[in-house]
Inverse folding.
């Protein structure tokens, strides 16, 4: 596939060669210009991810704001030997989004217990498994190489914000199966993406 | 050796997907310190997920950038310190790594809404606040400074916030509030443990900044809620909660 041209923001004299890793390390020195550049580059992916998880523009924007504030304040803790800057940043965004989803699940449970104290153990609404519709052919191809069960595991965890324990309960399968399924799924995904580069 | 579980390696996938409970995540992060193979795997998983994420990229609204930049104007990045998880709603304090005073301040910081993860230390204010809290409720301080204290915070619908601190070792749960509206005349703020299908009384809390150790913590509690009740309290809540805090998983 043709590589995307870098988004050309007319007025950014920042060295185009600075990697996201360099920018993040400059943030740790208090360089706001580097932060602006980093935000410009990575906020679309981050916003897309937050929207995917939260399915609500306002919630996604809140999560993105919190995440980028945290990225700034914790930039000194980034360690490039551990992860790419992009991955580190997306992890923070994802955790923010997932925390929000999980809090709301609990609050919903609380609210339901409130409204219906006599009801029997509450009955989780079985989440319908939304099909992944990645826009891009390469990702779609990689995902389609997964088994349906592997795709489902990725979807429930990464895009729905369920914990492995919740996935096991929802699918009524042993936790050990969930663990290995998640790892197999993401290994396969990684392999497919590498093979199609 | 840190060999808690022979197949802890299998958690690498769930970790990369953020599908671990906070306790599991902390255990896996300890494992990561010692396992290069898992570190490599987690790194490559993160890169694979980044590719997937990029395909659904979407420009956020322009004003969001402005508000993010406004949000960091008064904030200086924290100095590098540890390999701790970059983000935890639940903060597990580790004895032996920090002195007790620091731990107490850290808890108080969270209590007062100064995010441990982010923003600045307002030490003077904290010091004041710690003395105030300690004087007001020595019991609360005991929970706050327990070596295994865990924290969760939520904002009240009526303004202010509440922070729940629980210490599994002591089985105690404390609620500390900050900036709640004054209790209306003739009323009281009553706290409840919310279980799956049950709500049980847990005690009372004042308006403003206050702390209390809750009573009768049921095993199945998933959250605590606070309602406005007639003075003296009710056997069961008579109104909807204005503050709900999810209990962090152990």
């Amino acid at each position: 596939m043709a590589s995307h041209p870098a988004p050309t923001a007319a007025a950014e004299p920042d060295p185009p060669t600075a990697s996201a890793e360099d920018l993040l390390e400059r943030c740790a020195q208090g360089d706001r210009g580097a932060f602006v550049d980093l935000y410009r580059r990575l906020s679309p992916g981050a916003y897309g991810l937050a929207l995917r998880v939260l399915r609500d523009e306002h919630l996604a924007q809140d999560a993105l704001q919190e995440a980028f504030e945290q990225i700034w304040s914790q930039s000194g803790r980034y360690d490039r030997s551990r992860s790419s800057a992009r991955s580190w940043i997306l992890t923070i965004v994802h955790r923010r989004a997932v925390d929000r989803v999980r809090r709301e699940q609990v609050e919903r449970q609380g609210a339901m217990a409130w409204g219906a104290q006599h009801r029997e153990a509450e009955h989780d609404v079985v989440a319908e498994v939304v099909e992944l519709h990645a826009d891009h052919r390469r990702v779609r191809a990689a995902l389609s190489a997964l088994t349906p069960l592997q795709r489902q595991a990725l979807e429930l965890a990464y895009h729905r914000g369920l914990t492995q324990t919740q996935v096991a309960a929802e699918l009524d399968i042993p936790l050990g199966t969930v663990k290995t399924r998640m790892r197999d799924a993401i290994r396969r995904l990684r392999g497919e993406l590498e093979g199609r580069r | 050796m840190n060999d808690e579980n022979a197949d802890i390696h299998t958690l690498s996938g769930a970790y990369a997907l953020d599908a671990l409970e906070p306790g599991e995540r902390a255990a896996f992060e300890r494992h990561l310190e010692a396992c290069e193979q898992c570190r490599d795997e987690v790194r490559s998983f993160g890169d694979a997920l980044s590719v997937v994420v990029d395909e659904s990229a979407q420009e956020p609204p322009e004003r969001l950038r402005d508000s993010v930049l406004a949000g960091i104007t008064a904030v200086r990045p924290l100095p590098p310190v540890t390999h701790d998880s970059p983000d935890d709603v639940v903060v597990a304090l580790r004895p032996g790594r920090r002195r007790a005073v620091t731990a107490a301040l850290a808890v108080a910081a969270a209590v007062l809404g100064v995010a441990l993860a982010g923003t600045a230390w307002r030490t003077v204010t904290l010091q004041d606040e710690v003395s105030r809290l300690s004087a007001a409720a020595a019991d609360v301080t005991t929970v706050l400074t327990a070596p295994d204290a865990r924290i969760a915070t939520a904002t009240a619908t009526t303004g202010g916030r509440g922070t729940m601190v629980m210490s599994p070792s002591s089985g105690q749960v404390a609620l500390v509030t900050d900036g709640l509206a004054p209790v209306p005349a003739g009323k009281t703020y009553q706290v409840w443990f919310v279980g799956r299908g049950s709500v049980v009384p847990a005690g009372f809390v004042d308006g403003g900044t206050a702390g209390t150790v809750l009573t009768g913590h049921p095993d199945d509690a998933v959250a605590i809620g606070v309602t406005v009740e007639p003075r003296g309290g009710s056997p069961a809540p008579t109104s909807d909660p204005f503050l709900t805090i999810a209990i962090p998983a152990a």
Helices of chain A lie at 20-28, 32-54, 57-73, 85-115, 137-144, 148-159, 164-171, 175-195. The first helix of chain A runs from residue 20 to 28.
